[in-house]
Amino acid sequence: MSQDLNATNKKKQDKYNRIKTQISELLTKCELPEARMASILAVLHHKMKGFFWTGFYTLHNDRLIVKMYQGPVACMELKKNTGVCWSAVNQQKAIVVTDVHAFPGHIACDGRSKSEVVVPLFDDKQNLIGVLDIDSDSLNTFDFIDADNLKDILAMIYTIPYKKPENLL
Fold first, then answer.
1. pLDDT of residue 64
2. What is the distance between the alpha carbons of residues 80 and 137, in angstroms, rounded to a whole number?
3. Residue 148: other Cβ atoms inside 10 A
């Protein structure tokens, strides 16, 4: 059983490594954080199995508002200090939920959501500005491998240098 788990974890990590390479190359093409965020969402949503809803909620005047996403229609605003996203904001750490129905105060924007990972989003000055929220329509989709890699991917928004294409000079 342990060998199967190790093989599964290695396969997942290898996939994240390929995705991080792809995202790193994409992000050199534009310096605007919003464009980078949109590209990250598209890659994750379409490349990672089980990513049913993939999006950003950002803080605006002490409110958590949807910014951009891939998947079914989302809650536009999340009730303050309720649910997984606000828990990630308040604790300023990634939260993995294997069964959303067991999470106190879970906000069900879509009843098909069964598991979730939420990772805080920090700007280039390390100010908390929102979260990356990913839902799955299966139980037990996410783990520490997802949380750690998604944190690395979010850091790329502000750390990958922009390389202006020669045809734009």
1. 98
2. 24
3. 14
